[in-house]
Every structure is written in structure tokens, then in C-alpha cells.
Amino acid sequence: MFAVNAKIKGWILGILAAGFCALGLMFWQLPDGRMHVWFLNVGQGDSIFIRTPENHQILIDGGPGNKVIEELSEVMPFFDRSIDLVIATHPQQDHIGGLVEVLKRYDVENVLLNGVEYKNSYYDELLREIISQNTGIFVADAETDFTFGQVLVDVIYPFDQLLLEAFEEVNDTAIAVRIVYKDTIILLTADLEAEAEKQLVESGVNLKADIFKAGHHGSKTSSTLSLLGKVRPEITVIQSGEDNRYGHPHKEALERLKLAGVKTIRRNDLEGRIEFEF
User: Do the beta carbons of residue 151 and residue 179 sit within 8 Å?
Assistant: First the structure.
């Protein structure tokens, strides 16, 4: 009899422990009145998730596959299925591959696109899903900004709408944004390369930022010294996958970051998911 009771007691204790762990996770995920920014670990691609102090939720890109779903489950409360804004910076797989599944599993209120004409199966499927969900659609230009409580999503590029325009190279059509919260600024330039960075520098737009996501996964074709001289970031984050076939981040980009005086370089391929809390 004692052995049976001991086994039942063990089961009960195990169930209680699991329950307390679940409660702990739930409370850890609950809104806490702070600003959270996660650079999600989605492999060789970009994906940034933001939760504002007022519990607005913003997803910028979704990486190349469905790893974004696993990552979101780790940073969002399990009962919360709402995302206020999804930004698809440009229509390449390493940025939009996971967004179709996001739209299927979450209630996405609005999507911001650059609207360029581009043919691939991922982009076609994403557009079909956006339309089928009756999601609000915005086409990016420098006048289209979003305010979520204390947080400003300031679109700084492209300067004008690129709706239905065709480009041989779409990296330089990517949406770049400044995330502004109180005295903290985060600059996200997606896959913009040297030519678009030059346009930003020459435009006179305020590029100063505390945190900068290195362009194009730390490619040698992005994060030019002229741009870095305007941004002057304390911290740079590089979103690249472990042992990726492109060799990102490139040595040249890392050297430029050091020359520009960046004090801290953080990398998804070395750390996994990266979080900032304000």
C-alpha cells in the first residue's frame, strides 16, 4: 500500500511542479510596462519582435522558414494571438518565408510592404494570405509612420512608394525604420546595401541610433563607414545563421564596425535569441 501511495504522491508533486513552471512562464511573458525588443533566432534571416510598454506587438520580418513560430511562442504569452503590425521589409525568402504561417496563426491587424513587383512563390503566397485575412495593407514611404503609445515606428526608406515597380536587385528597395522609445533609438535597415545607404546619408535624415542592426546580415556590401559615421551606434546586432553558406558576417563588415567605434557587437549565430529591455 505504501508503494502505491508513494507513486501517487510522486505524480501529484510532478503535476504541481509542472503547473508552477507553466505559471512562472506565463507571468514571465505577461506585459510588464517595459519596452522589449527581441532579435529572434531564425537562422540565416531577419526577424525582430517588439512589445511596447502598452502591450502593442510589432513583428519586422519572419526569417526564411517557420522557426519564427517557435521563437514567438517563447516571447509572447501563450493566450495572446494578436500582432498589431507586421513589416515585410522586402520580398526575399530570408525575410518573408515565415510570415505566411504567422498570418495563419496570429490575428495580424496591419501589414507594411514595399509593394514592389517581384516573383517568387513565398511572396505570392504571402500576398494571397494577406488578402484572404482582410488584413490592413500599407505601402511604405517616408511619410508613413506608426505610433504605438510611447513608441514611434519611423519609416525612413524608401523615400517614395515603389508600388508595382520592378527591380533587378530588391535589397535596395527594403524598408528601413527607426524605432524610437523615449531617449532610445534603434535603426533597422534590413538588407540595404551601399547605394541605398549612400542615399540615406545624403538625404539628411537623422540616422543617429543607440542600437543598429547591421545591414544584410553583416555582408561586406552593407554597413559602410559613411553610414556608420552618421549612426554612431553603441551596439550593433548581426542577424545571421550559424555556419551559414554566405560566410556572414563578413570580415570586412566586422572591421568597419570596429573602425566606427562600435563598443558591442552581438550576433544571433553566436548567442541565439537576443533581447533588449528598456
Answer: yes
The tens digit of pLDDT for each residue in 206-233 reads 999 999 999 999 999 999 999 999 999 9
Residue 269 has pLDDT above 50, yes or no: yes
Contact 117, 165 (CB under 8 A): yes
Report field, pTM of the whole predicted structure over 0.70: yes
> Domain locations in the chain?
1-30, 33-277
Tell me whether the omega of the peptide bond preceding residue 53 falls within 30 degrees of 0, making it cis.
no
**Domain 33-277: which CATH number of 3.40.640.10, 3.10.180.10, 2.30.30.30, 3.60.15.10:** 3.60.15.10
Which residues have C-beta within 8 Å of that of residue 182, sequence separation ≥ 6?
A: 150, 278
HSE, side-chain direction, 13 A CA sphere, residue 184? 14
Q: Where are the alpha helices (DSSP H) in 133-193?
A: none
Terminal CA-to-CA distance of the chain, rounded, Å?
56
> Edge-to-edge, what's the strand order for the sheet holding 235-238?
146-148, 151-157, 176-181, 184-188, 211-213, 235-238, 264-267
Taking the C-alpha atoms of residue 231 and residue 3, their distance in angstroms, rounded to an integer, is 67
140-156 as b/e: b if 16+ CB within 10 A: bbbeeebebeebebbbb
